[in-house]
Amino acid sequence: MRKLAMVSTYNSSFVKRDEEILSKDFEVKNIELAFKSKGQLFVKYPYYLLVLAYHISRAYAVVVQGGGYHSLFSALLSKVFGKKCYIIVIGTDAIKLPEISYGNYCKSLLGFCTSMSYRLGYKLLPVHRALVIQDYTFEDVKYKSQGISAFTKGLDLRKINVVENGYDRTKWHNE
């Protein structure tokens, strides 16, 4: 069975669900790159780079949950080892709302890493089409245009495949 490296920053329910789905066709190695504080970033990343390099070099492909620092290192190492890197765009990694300090693109280094990983990734898999491009009309905000194509200049839109996140509409509905 082919090996798949799955990279996330938090082993959430949707990460576990994706791992369960992918485990039907792949041997999945879940790599959690978690930080309790920003100060751990530079302390833990050298170790994480070694862990990523080890698993990515042995994997058929890499699946990354969300854009950010972790996706940039995953995408770069995927290029080094000639592997395909699929990045699941989950929400905050496609938004810039400085009015409420929300979104990866509100922080310049995090926004840069997110954009670079999207350009380097083999395929981008947003969980909703609004994460590709949308006009934000709910409030008056500085950045009306939201989504990965609004903030990632030079993005090849042909590598985007929207994969709806599969919530149960019968369970979550407005009465």
Give the strand content: 15-25%
Number of helices: 5
Overall radius of gyration:
16 Å
- The rough form would be described as globular
Helix-and-strand structural type: alpha/beta
Give the ordered list of helices and strands: EHEHEHEHEEEH
Summarize the structure in words:
With 175 residues, the chain is α/β, with parallel strands linked by helices. The protein contains 5 helices and 7 strands. The strands form 2 sheets. It has a 5-stranded parallel beta sheet, with helices on both faces. β1 (3-8), α1 (13-22) and β2 form a beta-alpha-beta unit. α2 (40-58) runs parallel beside α3 and α3 runs parallel beside α4. The longest helix has 19 residues, at 40-58. It is globular, with a radius of gyration of 16 Å.
Descriptive terms for the model:
about 180 residues; alpha/beta; two-stranded antiparallel sheet; 7 strands; about 35% helix
Task: Detail the topology: elements first, then pairings.
Layout: E1 3-8, H1 13-22, E2 27-32, H2 40-58, E3 61-65, H3 69-81, E4 84-89, H4 108-120, E5 123-126, E6 134-135, E7 145-146, H5 148-151
In short:
With 175 residues, the protein is of the alpha/beta class.
